[in-house]
Amino acid sequence: MGRPNVELSNYEAVYDYYETHRQNMAFARFAHFVLARVYRCDLTTDDGAPEAITDAIESGTRLIISPNHITADDQYVIVSFAEKLKALRPLRGRTFIPAEPSLFRRRGRKGKMLRWAVDELGALPTFRLADLERRKIEITDAVEADYRAATLRASEIQVNKLNAGEMMAGFWEGTRNRADHRIVQPLKKGMAYTAIAAATTAAVAVLPVGLYYGSEPEDYAKPVLEGKHRPHVHVGTPLPVDTDDPVALAARVHTEIQRCVDVVVARAGRIVADHD
């Protein structure tokens, strides 16, 4: 099956393709190596977190890497710190991540290369009404019906991939933070539903992560950050999904992501003070 045109109106073909698509392991490992050298993370972890991550993976637990979301580079930062943190290296080539459809439809040769690369890194197109509105697409009843059907199909595929032994990375906030990178936005419950559904078949744990690029931008809509390629990252301790209440799970995850963000923001402040 050829790579489908990633448009909401074509969602059935899109998800038929990604339901069976598997990453190229050799390319995934190469890309992790390269991106870890492009995004040179200042990385810390909770005490005992690497050991807890290793124990979880070896026991068959499906991890959902869950950072805050502040820039379009965040997904590449995830790839880079998964390479840098030895405990996360087993996830290379077996982790998928919901991604904006725009990544899959860039034009020209570079667009085709990007499409191939994100496919082989496990990107899974996820449609959002906000993206359609930004493209000036009218949200008719028919469009809303397609959106609901596509969302349901995407969720089913995510659960199936977790049940099949794959790992996941995803942004629970749903969209980039355009107000204050130090404060985690309210979390959407979609990721909680996915985690809970997968946990009925296999053990699932959420791995909270805090990201920060060292400063606050003047324009949050188009942030220019001096530390773009030197992000601060703090990896927390895996949180077992042991509830069937998505509100309670989202609240717990929010608290832990915010704690991790507080760590990296404080560290960035200390680094600036030291340089002064």
Task: Describe the fold and architecture.
Strands 1, 2, 3, 4, 5, 6, 7 and 8 form an eight-stranded mixed sheet that branches. Helix 1 (11-20) packs parallel to helix 7, helix 2 (25-38) crosses helix 4 (74-84) and helix 7 (141-163) packs parallel to helix 8 (190-199). The mean pLDDT is 94. The chain has helices spanning 11-20, 25-38, 49-58, 74-84, 108-120, 129-134, 141-163, 190-199, 246-275, and strands spanning 42-45, 62-67, 95-99, 123-125, 167-169, 204-212, 232-235, 239-240. It is α/β, with parallel strands linked by helices and 276 residues long. The N and C termini lie far apart (57 Å). The chain has one domain (8-275): Glycerol-3-phosphate (1)-acyltransferase. The longest helix is centred in the C-terminal third of the chain and has 30 residues, at 246-275.
Second CATH tier, the architecture:
3-Layer(aba) Sandwich
Helix and strand run: HHEHEHEHEHHEHEEEH
Could you give me the name of the CATH homologous superfamily? Glycerol-3-phosphate (1)-acyltransferase
The tally of helices reads: 9
- The overall number of domains is 1
Instruction: Report Rg.
Output: 18 Å
Share in β-strands: 5-15%
Oligomer: single chain
Question: Can you tell me the residue ranges where pLDDT is under 50 for at least 5 consecutive residues?
Answer: none
Q: Ends: how far apart?
A: 57 Å
* CATH third-tier fold name: Glycerol-3-phosphate (1)-acyltransferase
Give the total of beta strands.
8
**Major β-sheet, in short?**
8 strands, mixed
Q: Percent range for helical residues? A: 40-55%
> Rough shape?
globular
Which CATH class is shown? Alpha Beta
